[in-house]
Amino acid sequence: MLSYARVDRWLSRFNGPQTIGHSAPFWGAVLFVIGLGIAVPYIVGGYDLVNFTGFVLMLFLAMGLCFIWGFCGILSLGQGAFLGLGGYTYGVVGINLIEAQGNTDVALIAGLIVPVLLAAVLGYFMFYARLKGVFVAILMLVVTLLFQTFLNQTAGVQWHIGKAYLGGNNGLGRFSAGITELPSLKLGIGDLVYEFVGTSPAFYYLVFGLAAITFLGLRMMVNSRIGYIMVAIREDPDRTEAFGYDVRLIQLLVFCVGALLAAFSGILYVGWGGFIDPSAFGIYNNILPVIWVAVGGRKSLEATVVSTIFLLWLSQRLAIGGEYAFIVLGGILVIVMMLAPEGVMTSMLDYWARWRRRGAASGRRTGDI
Amino acid sequence: MEVLSFIFSLLYQYADSIALLLLSSVGLIIIFGMMGVINMAHGELMMIGAYVTAWSYHAGVPTGFAIIMGGIGAGCVGILIERLIVRRFYGQLLASLVATWGLSLVLSQSFLLLFGPGPKGVPTPFGSFTVGQLSYSYYRLVMLASALAMILGVWALFTFTRFGVQARSTMENPEVARALGINTSAIYALTFGFGSMLAGLAGGIFALTALIEPNFGQSYTVVAFITVVVGGGADFVSGLFASALILAGVKTIIINQVNILLGQVAMMVTALIIIRLMPTGLSGYFERIRLRVGRR
C-alpha cells in the first residue's frame, strides 16, 4: 500500500534542517526534474545528448565540493587533482586489463581507490596539523599543479605503466598499439558484460542515475548525525571539539568523500570522451567547481546542481561566441561574492522566506518551502 | 678547480632560487602578511608589471625605468582592486580567497583576449661571466640584490616613516587608529597599492628573464604563498629570509641531484613538514625559542 504517511516517513530521512525543501511541492519538483532527466534522450538527439551527458557527469565534482565546503567548511582549490588522478588511474588500469578481463570493473574500482588514498594521506597531514582553512585550500592547488607539471613532462616512451603510455601533453594512450582512445566503461562479470559507450543513451542513463542516487545519498548524509557534526565543525570547530567530537577525523572522512566524488567525475569523463590529458589537473577543473558551488549557494546541494548545469551550459554558449567564457565566469564569481556571498539561489530563497514570514505576520496564509 | 667551479655553480643556483622566492613573495608579505588578505591575484599583478615593463621597454624607455613603470602600473591596478573588491572582504579569509581567485581568472583571460599571447620579451642586460667551464649571467645576481634591497626598503618604510607607523597601527586596531585621526580607508588602499607595486616590480624584474604571457603569474602565486606561510607571521622579514633560505636550499640540492620536478616536489614536502611541526611558521618558532631563552 502506498499511503501518504508511508511516503512521508520514507522521505523524512532525506529531510532536515540542513537542506532546503521538504514539502510536497518540493519533492514533486524533484520528481519532475528526474522525469525530465529520464526523458532527455527522447527530446534531444545525438550531439546534444552527448553534450548534456558531459554536463551531468561534472555534477559529482560539484556535489563533492558542495559537501566538503558548504557543509563542513573545507574549501579545496585542488579538486582537479582527484578528478585527474581518478581518470588517469582508470585509464592506466583499463588499458592494461581490458584485453585479459574483458571488462573495466577493476579499473573503475582502482580509479576510485587511488584518489581516496591520496586524499587520506594529504588530509592526514593537513587536518591533523590543524592547518587553517585557507592553507588547506592553497595547498590543494599546489598539489594539483604539481601533478600537472609532472604529467606534462612524461611525453617520452620511457614513461609508461605496462601498456599504458602517459604521453605528456598528448594525453594518456596506448602508444605501442597506435591507439589513443581509452577504454569505455564495460561493467559486469564473465560473459554478462555491458559496454556503456560514451555517446550512447545507456551511458547517459548510467551517469544520470548515479547522479540522482548521489544527490539523495548526500542529502541523507547531511541530515543524519554526521551531517549535524559537519555543520557544527563548519560553524565552530573548537566548540565541536569541546563537545567531544574528533574534528580532525571527521574532516578527514568528509574530505575523502569529496575526493571520491571528484574521482567519479574523472572516471566518467574518461568513459565519456575516451581521452584524458594533463589539463584535467589544470586551473579550470579546479576553479570551475568553486564557481559553480559559490554562485548557486554552497550550503545547498540543490542550488549547486542547478547552478552547475546552468553555468556549464552558459560557458558552452559563450565559448561558441569567442573566448569570453572564463572572463564572464570569473566576473560572475567576483560579483556574486560581493553582492550575495551565500550564493544567488540561497539568497533568493532567503528573501522569499522572509517575505512569506512578513506575510504571515500580517495575517496571510503561511507555509513552508 | 673542478670542485671549486662545481661549488660555485651550486651557490649560484642557490642564490637564484632565493631570489625567485624572495621576489615573488615580497609584495605578498604586505598584502597577506600584514593586511591578512588572501590575494590569489598576486601573480596577475606580477603579470601586469611584466606587461607594462615590456611595453615601456619597446616604447623606448630604458630598462631600469621600464621596470619602475611596471611597478607603478601594477600599483595603480592594485589600488583599483582594493577600492572595488578587496575592501569588502577584510577579515573574511575564505571569501577574499574565492573572490580574488575569480579576479585572477578575469585578469589573465582579459589579457589573453586583449593582447593575444603576449608582448615581445625584453633582453637580459649586464652580460655574463665565466667560472670554470660555465658562463653565468650577472643579471641573476642583480635579481638577488634587488630582492634584498626591496625587503630592506619595506622594513625601513614600515619602521621609520609616518606612513609605516600609521599603516601598522591601522592593521593592528582600525577602530583606535580611526579614533586617533588616521584615515584608515586611505591607509588600506595605499598599503594594498604598495604591496601590488612591489609585486609589479618583481614581475618587471622577472620579465627580463622569462617568457611573458597571460599565465605568467600563475605559478608565482602559489610559490609566494608557500614562502610566506612557512615564514610565519610573528616577524615577516626574518621569517621570509629563513623560509627562502631553507626552501631554496632543498630545491637547489634536489634539482642538482635528481631533476627539476622532484626539486619542486621536495620544496613542497619541506613546506608541509615545516608547517606540520611549526604551525605558526618559522618566525613563530623563533619567537617561542626567544621567549623560552628570555625566561631562563
**What's the gyration radius of chain A in Å?**
21 Å
Question: How many DSSP helices of chain B?
Answer: 13
Q: Give helix and strand order of chain A, one letter per element, not per position.
A: HHHHHHHEEEEHHHHHHHH
- Major sheet: arrangement of strands of chain B: 1-2
Distance from N terminus to C terminus of chain B (CA atoms, Å) equals 49 Å
- N-to-C terminal Cα separation of chain A, in Å? 27 Å
Summarize the biggest pleated sheet of chain A: 2 strands, antiparallel
Rg value of chain B:
20 Å
| Unreliable segments of 5+ consecutive residues of chain B | none
Helix % of chain B is over 70%
Low-pLDDT parts of chain A are: 364-369
User: Shape of chain B from CA axes?
Assistant: globular
Quick check: average pLDDT of chain B? 83
Helix share, percent of chain A: 55-70%
Total number of distinct structural domains of chain B: 1
Overview of the structural elements:
Helix content of chain A is 69%, strand content 4%. Chain A is mostly helical and 369 residues long. Chain A has a domain at 46-282. In chain A, the strands form two sheets. A two-stranded antiparallel sheet of chain A has the order 1-2. In chain A, strand 1 (160-161) and strand 2 (164-165) form a beta hairpin. By secondary structure, chain B is mainly α. Chain B has one domain. In chain B, strand 1 (128-131) and strand 2 (134-137) form a beta hairpin. In chain B, helix 7 crosses helix 9 (184-207), helix 10 (218-231) runs parallel beside helix 12 and helix 11 packs antiparallel against helix 12 (260-277). The A-B interface holds A 75, 77, 125, 129-135, 137-139, 141-143, 145-146, 149-150, 153, 283, 287, 290-291, 294, 322-324, 326-327, 329-334, 337-338, 341 and B 38, 85, 88-89, 93-95, 97-99, 101-106, 109-110, 112-113, 218-219, 222, 225-226, 229, 261, 264-265, 268, 272, 275-276, 279.
